[in-house]
Amino acid sequence: MSRIVKAVVATGKGEPVRSHDIVVPDPGPGEATVRVLASGVCHTDLHYRDGVIGDAYPYLLGHEASGVVEQVGPGVHHVEPGDFVVLNWRAVCGRCRACRRGRPEACVDDHTASTRMTLVDGTPLRPALGIGAFTELTLVHAGQCTPVSPKADPAVAALLGCGVMSGLGAAMNTGGVTTGDTVAVIGVGGVGCAAVAGAKLAGATTIIAVDLDERKLCHARALGATDVVDARQTPDVVAAIRALTDDLGADVVIDAAGTPETWRQAFYARALGGTFVLVARPDSGMRLEMPLLDTFLRNGTYRTSWYGDCLPSRDFAPLIDLHLQGRLPLDHFVTERIGVTEVEQAFTAMRSGDVLRSVVVFD
């Protein structure tokens, strides 16, 4: 039976988000409804609001979420009502070439729910990243539900759904950081700080955090950075990273800022033959010009990291377990807990750098 619930909706480019009544129908085949317990406020939600990602308004915002499965549709077997889950925006298909080759984290045929949630007047909603979690109840593809330990704080578990997983995975999966590596992370907001935490968990011995904001550098230190570079006070970031790595450069450099300037810094701060990972999403208008000879002479690996190259069914539950064991301080990323009516204020705090994550918590 369909239910009417309150939700945060973006109705036009750049317009403040507002609370609206929406209709959540029963799940169809392969789908599930989830009672949302917590949902992080991510830059991607702001991109939807501001038209950076698309213009197919109205958007039901929120995608970095945890909750409890309420109902499942026909053909759903891996989750059942009552399961505590983290929602993910990559439900792999199991049929494409990447899946058949045993690389489902590179699936190109991900799934979202076919049944549509709507405004009460019948206008179809586009859920952010196929989830739409700034609401007490949402409808998703069942493959977007990943069971984890119910002992976890919902506000903490939710953040694995996007930004924190992107950063952890950039270091551990895409960058392949291993014991004894030297790592530099340029841009230590939420994703960059998660990359720092991932590098520490993977056994890196030198972890260098670079940012313009002293507050973010303090967060990075708390999460495992052994050294920091304040880019406001340092005219040559590349030289600073090299000075901290015996003039060799870092084995792995992660660009979590995503500008042409930070791209060049990451490229030249990388050790010869090392790995450079771009995890930040650049704006569509950005352009980069590089000497082609330098890309040849410096050798090594350049990779982009999409969702931290994670496979939710493989990665989420073990990471939550590591957190519960005290080995991964995911709780550090929760700066504030807010109500669902405070999302617009959370966007302001995000833009000013006042938070790693604001998390909407539902009673």
TrEMBL record:
Q: Which SMART domains match?
A: PKS_ER
UniProt protein name: S-(Hydroxymethyl)mycothiol dehydrogenase
One annotated GO molecular function is:
zinc ion binding
Query: Which Pfam family, giving just one, matches this sequence?
Result: ADH_zinc_N
Annotated keywords: Metal-binding, Oxidoreductase, Zinc
- Manganese among the record's keywords? no
Quote the NCBIfam families the UniProt record gives.
Answer: mycoS_dep_FDH (TIGR03451)
In this chain the Enoyl reductase (ER) domain maps to 14-360
SUPFAM superfamilies for this protein: GroES-like, NAD(P)-binding Rossmann-fold domains
Which top-rank group of organisms is this from?
Bacteria
Recorded family membership: Belongs to the zinc-containing alcohol dehydrogenase family.
Cofactor(s) the record lists: Zn(2+)
List, alphabetically, the InterPro entries matched. Answer: ADH-like_C, ADH-like_N, ADH_Zn_CS, ER, GroES-like_sf, MycoS_dep_FDH, NAD(P)-bd_dom_sf
